[in-house]
């Protein structure tokens, strides 16, 4: 049959070139008859057959002037026009459009999700809308919005906005459909704002929805939809401008929308979800934990109701991310566990839906967070599995694919950091590089490059880390330069650029990089709106950069300016905001530094201690943030000039940090060493030695083989001093054998890292797998031995304990001797 259709089309082309017999011959009639036998009008047939047969009969009519051929051609084209008007001769469109119901065609296109049918419906409705009927204009606008969703052409959105405006203008004031037309207009304006970011569109959307809500609407169902739309757009404007009236009105309107629905109405799920989004937006801006709990409660209500798969997926997904945010605030791991349970439920519901990739990404990221907290390998593996599935279930042209790839790369980076497997690093870099390539705009590309730079930083021993950071800086420079004056994202990218320059300074120690960081952060502060929720963070970042420059250059003016900025950042946050404790900690630490550098720094010191005490007490006992603030407080209390009581309180604060299992090992080590120095300076030598022993016990955790090489090198820069302090303290107490033990512990760490930093165990595996495997075993044994605490003292030491210690020393010596032999052996390859 396909051959017959193609032959018929060829004969029509020959007729157009002047060969009349091509369509009038008996052979032509025979081919047409075979094609016609497969066409029964009113039933689904191939559009190419209809077109070929219609063009054949039209050509015969032109050649023979036979009315029967014209009627047959028109009947065929009339069947084809509603489906594919582009395949019908343009001269016949005006004749055929009158016989086609464009609105019915649009309904079919939407029901069948048929893009070609949608194009046909829009073409028909465009012609029919010339009469200016409001209902036809509204249907045309609906079709244009749907085509924008499918193809992403903003011109369709512009046309839709204009068409809905014509529909509103064409409708009489008492037309019962006019409120719906206003709501359609508001929704189209809201979408255009999301695409182009023009504030006037957002304001116009609010006005249109408010006018719709103010109109008389008899249908409770329609009124619920109108109120729901109004609430959503008010939340959008709140996110942009921070008006408390907008978010309060949004929540009130959305509750009124629920009141308009009947029990069992599936739309209740979406409206509860919208109320939760409003409460979450208010939490994100002002940090009131009550708003986060309110969002949780609305989502629990939503997930208990019957609803569509789409609405329930959104509700469970948002409930999961809300509980994850609650964990960030509370530090309660039970919230994190609950978040993962809800996200897992959302992922199972989303299977096969367009939302699946986003839910899987959220689940994977939350599992990574729990892995970072608990260190369970199962969480890490499950996180990577879900992040991989998120990428696999993304369309090649999905604009979110770059973000999903970048998250997957960071997941592989976490596993590389844990295992040291080069294959994981290769997967991580590959995913992040693809993310950079697929970035849809300069802004996203800058984010993806920044992630790639961070990832390569995980394996700083590999070449290219600085080059990738340079690329991230270059992309952010390009992005900030390409944004128009006053663009709402401008301050955010200036802030990111400043942080990138600051990260580069940490690698290069170049004063120019630090100056560039300060300048970019100054621009971010100058351009951010005074009422923006980001302003406090930008002020804090600028203060931190100036404080860093004070350390590097020593200019007191930088420290003074940093303190002013920290004060402004703190003032910008309301009481109870989750970030206030961190701001208090920054201000207190900066004031402590100035007090130490100023002879008359008593006022600064008193203010610093007040800030640091409030910061510490403002966090839950077992939260990582509490450990950090206790460290800052302890450091300040034990600084030069402290009283005996302050030193005692400071040592207690530092002890809390050391004992905090959830805190970073590097922080706990610093707290232990600070406590050791303070105790030694105050004459508490036994306490000092105990603190140094704890610090040495923690040292392998921050310089072990599983950590990034830059971190190893940073902490090992302190090893000799730490070991010397500990051994010296033991000698001062007359404990010479313990001093030897402490020195041996330090030597184990140094040997271990020295080997690992050159990557011998991995690089030489292929050349001598037996030796390489034994090298790994020795390194693990040395890790375990370095983590073993020094022997205890006090009372009579038992003979068995002495023998165990002697055996341990002998065994350690044997391991180090074997290690030397293996290094000589491997160095030959």
Descriptive keywords:
829 residues, mainly alpha, elongated
Structure description:
There is one protein chain. With 829 residues, this protein is mainly alpha-helical. It has helices spanning 2-16, 21-24, 26-36, 47-64, 67-80, 93-97, 102-112, 115-128, 134-151, 154-170, 178-196, 199-214, 220-241, 244-259, 267-286, 289-303, 309-330, 333-349, 356-374, 377-392, 401-419, 422-438, 442-458, 465-482, 490-508, 511-527, 535-553, 556-571, 580-597, 602-617, 624-637, 644-659, 665-681, 685-703, 709-716, 719-732, 736-757, 760-763, 769-787, 799-826.
Q: In which range does the helix fraction lie?
A: over 70%
Please give the largest β-sheet. none
In angstroms, what is the radius of gyration? Answer: 36 Å
Class by alpha and beta content: mainly alpha
Total helical segments: 40
Q: Which regions contain 5 or more consecutive residues with pLDDT less than 50?
A: 457-465, 704-715, 755-766, 782-807
Tally of strands:
0
Strand residues, percent: under 5%
| Global morphology | elongated
* Through-space gap between termini: 70 Å
Mean pLDDT: 81
